Amino acid sequence: MTGEDNRERPRKIVHVDMDAFYASVEQRDNPELRGQPVAVGSPAARGVVAAASYEARAFGVHSAMPSVTAQRKCPDLISIKPRFDVYKAVSFQIRAIFAEYTRMIESLSLDEAYLDVTTNLKGMEIADHAEEWSCLRRAPAR
Length: 142
Description:
The chain is of the alpha+beta class. The protein is built from six helices and six strands, in the order H-E-H-E-E-H-H-E-H-E-E-H. It has helices spanning 3-6, 21-29, 54-57, 67-73, 84-99, 130-133; strands at 13-17, 38-41, 49-52, 78-80, 105-109, 112-116. The strands form two sheets. It has a three-stranded antiparallel sheet, covered by helices on one side. A three-stranded mixed sheet has the order 3-2-4. A hairpin with a 2-residue loop joins strand 5 and strand 6. The protein starts with a helix and ends in a 9-residue tail after the last helix. The model is unreliable at 137-142 (pLDDT under 50). This is DNA-directed DNA polymerase.
């Protein structure tokens, strides 16, 4: 056995961050919202944006922004009250897909996780392509 055989394989960690998650779920569930500037959060005077769609972001709207400021930046902004039960259910569905590849999942929030895919359950070399994936951007919903 050579020294090379005794070395541990380097770990392969994938970071998954589902950007604009709440807004994307709303656009998925209501096709009329697709392509529209959407903010999930409270539209009340003291409300805050929890998530903004890419269309809303084009106007400078972002999470943690006061709703009044967001509406000023984007007059056609569609404000939607959060449905955390739905986001949680979608997050669990996505986590179930992750679990097909690895049992080593570190959830940070409903829309973010680290996956250790050094040895994955499907035997696919998915992490070998992580560097290629790092340059990918969100594809538009169809």
